[in-house]
């Protein structure tokens, strides 16, 4: 099976780290947001806008089920909310070794300040929403992962090395 699954909050670096990690290992790379966007032919923001969050969450679980047993030597980056839904952490563990990329609230807030691609953080109170979500999600990330990598004070290469 040999897959590595990256989880963590929006902006923690799952995609950047995942792409680099895949390159180092000569693995494939897959991002669940992109998988869903390609399948539905719409961006994540449009899916939220037109069908609502719950529809997107169902698509995430569906994607995990579709990918089960099909991936080999693949680094998978999953959307920040995916490990929270009941049952998804078991599906993730069946897919591969789950690695939680931890970043502090402060670092994430700075990175996501002007982001317009994450519907859950949109609006003037985006940073407040981030804080609330962060506290709520932390225990889920801890419980769903086999390993945690603290990314604070590490550059991209250091994070990749830590995972390897
Ligand atoms: C979400 C994170 C996003 C994307 C969607 C919802 C979340 O992915 O799936 O906007 O609930 O945390 P990233 O974690 O890749 O930004």
From TrEMBL:
Reaction catalysed by this enzyme: shikimate + ATP = 3-phosphoshikimate + ADP + H(+)
Subcellular location as annotated: Cytoplasm
Protein keywords: Amino-acid biosynthesis, Aromatic amino acid biosynthesis, ATP-binding, Cytoplasm, Kinase, Magnesium, Metal-binding, Nucleotide-binding, Transferase
GO molecular function, one term: magnesium ion binding
Binding site for ATP: 11-16, 118
Cofactor detail note: Binds 1 Mg(2+) ion per subunit.
GO BP annotations listed: amino acid biosynthetic process; aromatic amino acid family biosynthetic process; chorismate biosynthetic process
Top-rank EC class of the record's enzyme: transferase
A Pfam short name: SKI
SUPFAM superfamilies given in the database record: P-loop containing nucleoside triphosphate hydrolases (SSF52540)
Keyword check for Glycoprotein: no
Coiled-coil region list: none
Quaternary structure, from the entry: Monomer.
Function according to Swiss-Prot or TrEMBL: Catalyzes the specific phosphorylation of the 3-hydroxyl group of shikimic acid using ATP as a cosubstrate.
Protein name: Shikimate kinase
Organism listed in the record: Anaerocolumna jejuensis DSM 15929
